[in-house]
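--- STAGE predict ---
source: upstream dedup step, 1 unique chain passed
mode: sequence only
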Amino acid sequence: MDPFGSSFSLQASVRPVKVEVYTPAFRVLGVTSTRFARVADVMNQVSTTHLSVGDATLTEYGDKAGKAERRRVLVPVEQILFVVTPELEGAARADMQVNRRAVPVTLAAAPFVVTGELHVPSGVGSVEGLLNSPDRFVTMTGVQISCRSHPELNQAVAAIAVQRTLPILAISEDAQRTGSELADVLDAETAAGWLRKPDGGPRSG
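--- STAGE serialize ---
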């Protein structure tokens, strides 16, 4: 399955899909219901102000013990940084009508730094791809999620849906650059901290 385009069908049945929802302070693991088969479509077709997640575990970052309670959680869509849907991850379709290219980017969504590939129309830069997209959520693939303050949240995933309207920064579209250009858009101390591993060493590019 691929994460791009629309997968809506009037005949498609609603089914449960596992999700990992990340906000600036909380992670919600659970299940949501959808007709869609691509990660960004699940979020872009939410018609209410909140994403409903059932059989959910709500965990505050830094709470290593976690919360075992299973319940229904309503997450304000406007507060969602990004969403992982492991069952729906995949590569782009070869028959996509719009010719797209994969642009290596680094996005800063505190407390996370997310690296991967943003898929934008040919001839469009990563920043323009974020600013001019008609969708609230855009797809990144080949993703590495890093969180210096909570390294237990670090993970690599195939694809995520990122909310482009939040203060997320497209840092670079040059595959040869390593992310040190964070210092160009953030204050030096913050940029250095985000690029430093929890053990004090530099992050790899």
